[in-house]
Every structure is written in C-alpha cells, then in structure tokens.
C-alpha cells in the first residue's frame, strides 16, 4: 500500500525531489520501485500455493495469482511501451496487489488440487491464468477509457486526465490486448474440453464453470467480430469488454467461491 500511495502521490502531484530531475527519470524510478511489491507478492504466493505435495489453489490463491500476473504483465510491458499517462494504473494495481497478498489467509484452500503433476494440467493452468490476467488488464483499460471519455465532456476535472493518450490510441491498444487474451482463452477452453482426460485425469463433466467460460468466450468473439464487420468502438466496445470479463470471473472465481466458501466443499 505504501508503494501504491507513492505512485499515486507522484502521479497526481508530480513534484520531483530534485529540480534537475526530469519527469522521465521519476517515471523510471516508479517503474523499478514497483518490482519490490511484485517480488514480495510472488514469494508469499509461492509459499501459500506449494505446501507439501500437490498444489493448493483455492479461491484466495486463485484471485491472488491473477492479480499478481496482471500487475507483472503491466510492469513488464512498461519496458516496451510507455504511453504517457497510462502509468496512472500503477497506483490501483499496486494497492490491489498488496491487498491480494492477504486473500489466501482469509480464504485458505480446503484441499490441494489433484493431477497437478501432469504436464498438460500445468500448461492448462498457466494459459488460463495468463488469459484471465490479460482480460483483467483489458477490463481496467476499458474503465480508464470510460473516465477519459467523461473527462472530454467535463474538462474542468483534475489535470491528470489531460496526460492520458487519445481515445483512438487507447482503443487500438485495448483491441490488441483483447485479441491476445481471446486466443489464450480459446486455448484454455479447447484444452479443458477436448483434452479433459489428459489435463484433469478424468472425462469432461459439464459444470457452471464450463458454461460461463463458453459464454465469456462468445462475448469476446462477438466483440471482435462486431469490431471487424460493423466497426464497434467506444462505449459499445467498452460494455462488451466489461461484460465478457465479469462473465469470465463468474466462470472460475465465482464457481470456486460458491463451492469453497458458501458450500464448504
């Protein structure tokens, strides 16, 4: 949380400690400082997930893993593309990551997962977590686009929003993120449905997780098709992005929450 507060203070009130220090130097320092909570989160997450034999992956560890991957992807992408103003997302991501560290303690896993020693299962889990994280970034990006659009109609708002990239650039970036996330989500569903025996060690059983996963895939597919054929953009694209992400949350996090927390299974 201290790191998140530091980012937020420098974003809203960018006053360098040294007057000769450039704004890019401040941004670079903020970027490297974020590595500290990321490493601490990774160590805590590893100790929580790998206890004895098997993999402890309850709802707390699942959410914490997605938050960590989301923050790490955003941090890593900063080495290749630093669009001015998008560093605003660092603060809420850093704060969320610090809170997510505590989730495995609040929602401990009841029992370790089975068949975690299978290579196919490990590959499936990795691709699934990457898909969740990228689409989470897309959802955050869509929310930020909503804020930028409102700022265009209310220019008297805080000057932080004037530093953000134009909506067209943010929209193109959103589309790229969704495309990569959609491909990974497709691989996740195909590997889980078609190769269920190889991945989970048992035949496929239709569940709420499968149903919501397919619905989420359909929402993102419709968004990409609508963008290609009908030029969907702006609020329409944002709504479809948020709808797809919420459905995806219900597919895995929602089902695990109901089973582990409400039904105690």
Shape designation: globular
Sheet-strand content, in percent, reads: under 5%
Number of domains: 2
- State the end-to-end distance: 33 Å
Number of strands: 0
Mean pLDDT: 76
Please tell me how large the radius of gyration is.
Answer: 20 Å
- The tally of helices reads 11
Report the biggest beta sheet as strand number plus sense, adding barrel if it closes: none
String of helices and strands: HHHHHHHHHHH
The low-confidence runs, each spanning 5 or more residues with pLDDT under 50, are none
Proportion in helices: over 70%
Q: Report the structural category.
A: mainly alpha
Describe the model.
There is one protein chain. This protein has 265 residues and is an all-alpha fold. It folds into two domains: 113 residues; 151 residues, no CATH class. Helix content is 71%, strand content 0%. The longest helix has 35 residues. It is globular. The two termini are 33 Å apart.
From the structure above, extract its key features.
single chain, 265 residues, 11 helices, globular
Set down the secondary structure blueprint:
Layout: H1 2-12, H2 23-33, H3 35-49, H4 59-77, H5 90-100, H6 103-106, H7 119-153, H8 167-193, H9 196-200, H10 208-230, H11 235-262
Helix pairs in contact: 1-5, 3-4, 4-5, 4-7, 7-8, 7-11, 8-10, 10-11
Briefly say what this structure is.
This protein has eleven helices and no strands. It has helices at 2-12, 23-33, 35-49, 59-77, 90-100, 103-106, 119-153, 167-193, 196-200, 208-230, 235-262.
